[in-house]
Every structure is written in C-alpha cells, then in structure tokens.
Amino acid sequence: MPLQISKLTYLRLLPKFIVGQGNGLGIKELMKLSHLQGQLWIIGLQNVVNVRDAELSGLHEKLGLDELALEWIDNFQVSRNGGDELHVLSSLQPHRSLEKLSIKSYGGTVFPSWVGDPLFTKMVDLQLCSCRKITSLPPLGKLPVLRHLSIKGMDEVKEVAVEDFPSLETLIIEDMLGWEQWSWPNGINEDVGKFPKLRELTLGNCPVLIGKLPSYLLSLQKLDVYNCPRVTCLPEMLPCLRELNVGECQEEIFRSVPVLTSLRCLKIRRISGLVSFREAFLQALVELQDLKMEDCNELECLWQDGSNLDKLTNLKHLRIYYCEQLVSLIKGEEGFLPCNLEVLQVIGCHNLEKLPNGLHSLKSLRELEICKCPKLVSFSESAGLPDTLKRLEINECVSLEYLPEGLMTMTDENNSNQSPS
Questions:
Q1: Is residue 166 part of a domain?
Q2: Tens of pLDDT along 313-350?
Q3: Where is the R13L1/DRL21-like LRR repeat region domain (predicted)?
Q4: Strand pairing partners for 336?
Q5: What is the DSSP string of 402-415?
C-alpha cells in the first residue's frame, strides 16, 4: 500500500488496509483517516510490534464504519506471543455502533472484554474464525440484536455455552476439533429453547462433539450436520424445519424420531451403519418432497417390504447416488414406491439387481434415470412405464437383459430413450 496514504485525510472508502513489516505502512497511519466509512478490512496484524501503534489507529473514533475485519497470519507453527496479540486486539476496539465484525487467526487464548460487550447494540453479524489458541468463548448471547454468528476453527474450545440469543437467526459452528459438548449454565433448563428466532443451524467437522443438541428449536428451517460422528440424535422439536442435510455421521442419529412435520428436503451422505430406514422415522416425514442419498455404502434398501408409506405421499424426487451395497430400493417382493413420485434417479449403485414393482402405476413420474448399475438385470416383473414419463436415461447397465414393455411405443417427442450400454 502507498506509504503516504495517511495524507488523504478526507478519504472515505478504504476497503482493505495491509499492515506492513519493518518500515512498511504501520497501523498507526489509520489515525488521520477519521472520515472512513463502510467496510474496513485490516490484514497483517502480526506485523504490529508496538501496542501503542494499535491504540493510535483510533478505530473507536471512526464512527462511519459499519463493518470491520481484523486478520492475523494464519500460521500457528511460527512463534507467536498470545499476550501481545491480546493487547493489540484490545487496542483495536471499534465504536459501539458497529454492525459487522470479523476476527480471523487471532493468536491469544482469550478475547478482550469488548468482544461480546452488550453495549454493541447494533452488532448483527459476528464471525470468529481460526483463532486456534482460544480456550473459551465470550458470552456472545449478550449482544442484543445479533442475527448471524459464525464460529470456526477454535481447536482448544471444549465447551460451547447455550445462552439466550433473543435475535439470532443463523448459527454456524465448524472445524471445532476439540469441542466436546454444549453446556447449560446453572439455573437454565436444558430442555428450554434458547434460540427463539434461529432459522439456520450448521454444525460441521466437530469430530468429538457428544451429547444432545439444544432440544427445542421451534423456528429452525434448515439444519446441516456433517462430520459429527458422535452426535447420536437430532433436536427433539423441529416443527418448522424444511431442509435437513446430514453427512459423515452414524446411523444412530436417525433412531430418535423428532417432530419433522414441515420437512420437505432430506439429504443424507456417508452415514455409517445405515442399512435401511426405520418405519417410525419414515412416518415422521409427512411433508417430504425431496430425498437424496449419497455414498451410504452400507445401505441395502431404503425400507422394508410392508413398511407403511402412507405418510410419504408428498415425495416427488428420489435420488440415490453411489450406494455400493444397495441391492434393491425396497426389500421384499411386494414393495412399491410412493405413489406421487415425479423424478427417480439411481446412479452408481453397483450391486443393484432390480427396480421395485409398480413403476407403471406411478402416474406422476416424469423422469427416470438409471446409470452405472452393472448388476441390474431387469426392471420389475410388473414391467412397463407410465405414459407420463418425459425423460428416460439408461446408461452403463451392462447386465440389463431387456427394457420395460411398451418402451418402444412411447412417442412423446420430448422423450429421451437410451439403450443400455
């Protein structure tokens, strides 16, 4: 950056400020830029040698700033003085009307007291990322209007407290390699929801997280849980949940049957131990429209013959990708697919031998795609396809002996019929 930038005393927009090394541009050069507005991203804070320089930057006086990002080098292998970095961050306290704050790769073990201070009455977005030496989080629930919170890469944090977050709408917690459990402060009932407005929750790559999740998430609409193999149950009350994505977890997570009366989209990936769905879980999916299964290598079938599927009448899209042990979609001879299915895709299921009965009775089926299923010998014995079918693709099914009856008489000009290859 230009060394003389501080002479632009009426400068209003400076999205990025890079702190130089040695005789390079110092953090104190921000002192004279009192008219800055909008967003400011300060990079290279590891180059601040003198804490007094950080104080002279005068961030607390720059009342025009709405967003502030503070970033250190993302290298914790080199020698770093956590105490010095704490003093620097303490000195970079912004004004209390700031709306968005991001702190990345900070090397202290604790945050200064201003992080989470309830006097930041306009703070709506907070991101704490890759602060790998932090051992505990500040009481962030005291921020009265905080709507979006992201916590990532805090390897030394063992517990995350469940606080009252009256305004929180989005919570992302990822890459927490040492996080073991949620904790409920004394006097707080762990069965009472502390997130009354939470709409989206992401928990990812938290390999040692155990125990229950917050139970009553009454406003939650989207839940992502991935690579949390020791999380064994979903929250109990999810009446507004519309989308659920679960990956790299254990089958136990589906043994409990939460309230899922609004769930429309379910995506499942790499679930260890999942052989088939339990009927009680299927019965909870009364509004499900889209089911996607991917890389579930122990899955043998979706459900057992005889399972009551009367609650799956809204299912329209069924996609199954690369489930190596899948032999049939339904275990047994008499099983049928949900009656209102519109799209069926089965790709890369190398042990699939046949498709279920009654494909011809699926009067809403528009698309059927079967690819890379080398053991598929035939369609169901009650062969035939519905007249509603608009797209058919069959590829790399080398053992397929014959196509469904009536296939060659399908004349709709939009059909795409491909022979097995």
A1: no
A2: 899 999 999 999 999 888 865 567 888 999 999 999 99
A3: 27-154
A4: 357
A5: -PPTTGGG---TT-
**Domain range for 67:** 1-157
Q: Which two tokens stand for residue 31?
A: 């002192």
pLDDT tens sequence across 25-58: 889 989 888 889 999 999 999 999 889 999 999 9
Whole-angstrom distance, CA of residue 70 vs CA of residue 79: 20
Note the residue count of the chain.
421
| Helix, strand or coil, per DSSP, at residue 87 | helix
**What ranges in 67-166 are assigned the alpha helix state H?**
82-91
How many whole angstroms separate alpha carbon 26 and alpha carbon 17?
Answer: 10
CB atoms within 10 A of CB 124: 19
Residue 60 lies in a domain: yes
Are 270 and 296 in contact by the 8 Å Cβ rule? The answer is yes
Alpha carbon separation from 302 to 61, 106, 153, 282, 420 (Å, rounded) = 61, 46, 36, 10, 25
Spatial separation of the C-alpha atoms in residues 27 and 389, rounded to whole Å: 66
The structure tokens 């491909």 sit at 418
- The mean pLDDT value for 99-105 works out to 98
Q: How many domains does the chain have?
A: 1
- Please report which helix (H) or strand (E) contains residue 53, including its range: helix 51-56
Burial class (CB in 10 A: 0-12, 13-18, 19+), 329: buried
Whether residue 368 lies inside any domain: the answer is no
- Give residue-wise pLDDT tens across range 58-76: 999 999 999 999 999 988 7
Residues 6 or more apart in contact with residue 91 via CB below 8 angstroms? 51, 54, 55, 57
Q: Is residue 10 one of the residues assigned to a domain?
A: yes
